[in-house]
Predict the 3D structure of the following.
Amino acid sequence: MSQIIYPTTNLKKPSNLVIERGEGVYVYDNKGNKYLEAMAGLWCSSLGYNNKELIDACTDQMSKLSYSHMFGGKTHQVGIDLAEKLTSMVPMNNAKVFFGNSGSDANDTHIKLLRYYFNAIGKPQKYKIIARERSYHGVTIASASLTGLPVNHSNFDLPFEALGILRTDAPHYYRGALENESEIEFVDRITNNLEKLIIEEGPETIAAFIVEPITGASGVIVPPPGYYEKVQAILEKYDILFWCDEVITAFGRTGNDFGSNTMGIKSPDLMTLAKQLSSAYMPISASLISGDIYQALIEPSNKVGVFGHGYTYSGHPVACAVALKTLEIYQRDNMFDDAAVKGDYMQSKLQKLNAHPLVGEIRGKGMIAAVEMVANKKTGQAFPNGDIGHYAMAACQRLGMITRAIAGSSLAFCPPLIITTSQIDEMIFVLEKALDETLIYAMKNNLI
Ligand code: PMP
């Protein structure tokens, strides 16, 4: 026990795994046990642990300028350099970037940027945001309101009504399709629902639609082919901005540089980045907007005054230096292409577990995946609660691997991008053993 209030934890159960150090793709606890970190922490430690170049970038910047801010006319070179590199990488038109500290606050910033923008162009009534069921966008009051998971709403009186968050379908065919509905029919139905929602609410009141190109915390949902094409056509028709939350999917995670590219999304108007932006060596996030939106904010004739938003640590120079080095390493080492090849390998190895009696669906792209366990393989019937997921996660941990139980009964996989193919084999080997142990547990407890 300790004096800590633990995040995203059942506070009635004490936390007991004390992680002490990390090296490459492995972490070690205070008893010397070694674990393969198959989740890269919380989908973030892309370059693994104890990367000397990132440590040097950090300490060099600390010696040079440990802190400076960006309020009211000040800036610094490492922040300018990071903004230049980052905006040259993202699949957006003439992007501009605001720096923050976390994915949650970056999404809050975007909500405020949207309001500021529509006030600037004289459309203050255009403030509502469409988000999907089972999405994850963070846990601040505003970003938790965007999030579509009950656990982040209940007991917090969320979503916060004044934000005007509208909800549309999760694009998960396996769980969301009607009986005998094809993938094409499913996509047609849920995109028609989106259009109906827009018409009912009034397009003139809706600012943006936010998506994770491939979801993370809600179960690694990969939308069926054609989904984003239809969504983008609808948004264009009704003049609604498209906002990609790429906090997990950016920087080589999904088999391309950005998840938007993996999913065939055409230049989003807004993009949120964090996590792998600095390989999680320092907290930093980025809220990016297109050049067109930015242009409206600096128009001398617009109706808004000072952009009254900013964090003490917006563009923290040490975080910027580490992020800049991270991006340089990604490019220098061709890491996105490399991750795409290893991602294909990981997905094909995982698919071999499809025959396991406990496995209902294996889904993912590149270096992100989820294995969903079901009570009835034939019908896909879900387990009644998250028990099995937690049992399987604990089994993995006993066997020397860290994963996460998500979306009830799925195990998530999101290893550091530096993982080797033999370490992927090790990951699959442990998973298979853990699934076998979990099957025995399920049978003994009449859960299957
Ligand atoms: N958006 C997405 C897609 C995320 O996965 C997360 C975190 N898992 C967030 C936003 C929130 O980021 P943070 O935890 O850094 O606030």
Remarks:
- The chain has two domains: 54-332, 334-444.
